[in-house]
Design brief:
By secondary structure, the protein is an alpha+beta fold. It contains four helices and nine strands; from the N terminus they run ββααβββββββαα.
Length: about 210
C-alpha cells in the first residue's frame, strides 16, 4: 500500500490530522480552588445553606474556563475523536496541556476495534498544540467509513493534580465566572474575557 499525501489548500487541509472533539472520561479529583476559598471570594460566610449549589457553580466555572481556552486544568483522562485517519503523518491535538498519551484505537474496515501500536509513532507534549507523529516508514490505517468517531485517542491532560500547578489566570477566571453565575457579586464579563485571553493558544478558539 503506497503512502499518499493529500493536497494542501489551507490550514484545515494541510499535512496533518486534526483532533478537536473531546470527552472527559475521568474527572479531576479536586477543583483548582476550594469551596471555602470560593465562598470567601463571593463574600459568603463559612456556614451557609448553599454549599451544594456553590459546589456545582465551582465545577461549572472550571469547565467553562476549560471549554473557552481549549485546555484542561486539573489532571483528568480525556478521549479525543476523529472520524477517520487522513493519509498524512501528523495528528494535531487541539487540547492542551497533555501529560501523556495512553492509546490510539480505531475501527478497521471490518468494523473491528484495533489498537495502533505505540511503537509506530512519537508524541510531542511540549508543543502547543500537542502532536502525534508517525515514525519513519509507518503509515496510518484505513477505517470503516460509516463509523462516526472511528479513531479514539486516549490521553491524560491537565497541568497537574494540585491547585498550585494551575496558572493564576485560570484560577482567577474560575472565580470571575462563578461570580457571574452566583449573581450576588460584581462579576465582570469583561474581566473574564481578559483572563481567558491570557490563556488562549489558538486563533481558532476566541472568546467573543
Amino acid at each position: 500500500m503506497a503512502f499518499e499525501y493529500q493536497s494542501a489548500t489551507g490550514y484545515e487541509q494541510s499535512a496533518k490530522n486534526i483532533c478537536r472533539s473531546f470527552k472527559t472520561t475521568s474527572e479531576p479529583a479536586i477543583e483548582p480552588i476550594t469551596l471555602e476559598n470560593l465562598k470567601d471570594r463571593l463574600r459568603i460566610g463559612s456556614t451557609c445553606d448553599f454549599d451544594a449549589e456553590l459546589s456545582l457553580i465551582l465545577t461549572q466555572a472550571r469547565k467553562q474556563v476549560e471549554a473557552d481556552t481549549y485546555r484542561r486544568l486539573i489532571t483528568q483522562t480525556v478521549v479525543g475523536y476523529m472520524d477517520e485517519f487522513r493519509w498524512v503523518r501528523e495528528i494535531e491535538i487541539r487540547l492542551a496541556p497533555i501529560q501523556s498519551f495512553t492509546s490510539i484505537v480505531y475501527t478497521d474496515l471490518n468494523g473491528t476495534s484495533q489498537t495502533f501500536a505505540a511503537s509506530r509513532y512519537s508524541t510531542d507534549i511540549i508543543s502547543t498544540p500537542p502532536r502525534i507523529v508517525l515514525k519513519t516508514n509507518e503509515q496510518v490505517e484505513y477505517t470503516e467509513e460509516n463509523t462516526p468517531n472511528a479513531v479514539a485517542i486516549t490521553f491524560v491532560a491537565g497541568y497537574g493534580s494540585t491547585a498550585a500547578s494551575i496558572p493564576p489566570a485560570a484560577r482567577l477566571a474560575i472565580v470571575e465566572y462563578a461570580k457571574i453565575l452566583w449573581g450576588g457579586c460584581d462579576g465582570s464579563e469583561m474581566n473574564y474575557k481578559r483572563l481567558i485571553s491570557a490563556l488562549q493558544w489558538t486563533g481558532y478558539h476566541k472568546v467573543n
